[in-house]
Amino acid sequence: MPVRESLLAVALVLSATAHAADPPSAPKADNAAAEAAQAATKAAKEAMETAGQMAAEQAAASEALKTAIAGSWRDPKNVARDKYRHPFETLRFFDLRPGDTVIEITPGGGWYSEILAPYLREHGQYVAAVVDPTRIEKGRDYQQKAKANLEAKFSASPTQYDRAGVLAYDPNHPVFGPAGSADLVLTFRNVHNWRSAGQAEGMFKGFFDVLKPGGVLGVVEHRATKDVPADDNTGYVGQAQVIALAEAAGFRLDEQSEINANPKDTKDYPNGVWTLPPSNDHDAKDDAKYQAIGESDRMTLRFVKP
Fold this sequence. Notes:
Layout: H1 3-20, H2 31-69, H3 76-79, H4 82-85, H5 87-93, E1 101-105, H6 113-120, E2 125-131, H7 140-156, H8 158-161, E3 165-169, E4 182-188, H9 191-196, H10 200-210, E5 211-222, H11 239-248, E6 252-257, H12 287-293, E7 298-304
Helix pairs in contact: 1-2, 2-6
């Protein structure tokens, strides 16, 4: 249960016990009323202690996450993008906790791996799910290189990554681990690729299957101004389209955030989203223009498996 829901439950307990502890209207309370009042006082005290413990755990988890984000092992180029990607706010929105089993889908060069693997190292589990290059024909060399580079990154820094896992999946029949084994599945700016490859429905089903009941799917994606066809080559996707994909797989939309929104993004560039940083696929003379815009406007969606 998310902390905010737990605190609400505690508040309800406090309210109920406070009423239970009210003295009876009779001039003299009988033994049963006295015992009820004593039990209500005890319950209220325990509820307050639980609320305090939960708040302390939440504060400790937040500090641990800040420590991971500030880690000296992070690539300076990745750190420079924090102002666009808002890792602390994003991961807190996705209800990340230190003891979670977290699966990140196609983490690329490991931008979020640098934060998640150290954060989860002691009490949780981080799994990087990458495309199995032996299962595809188109793009095999690219996926082989991506997998090898990520594994090399992990091997080079055992203090941060020795307990991180790498799982290779078949994008046409994706399985991300034993059913009901993960607390949190994360994907950052990947949905447009799956839609163009005709794999989106299968991917979302795989996310649903691997999550525990109550588990969270966190999605960040380049946001189009409206729905786009599956073969759209701009890199943007309609927010309603992503929600529909998740709901079709069985998820419930829990909340959406504007953490990663960018109103400066007009989404009408010659080379699609790759015109903007960090790809910067534009003429050198236009660099100042696109740097002023920054990275893309992104939806940030939290789904829950019922």
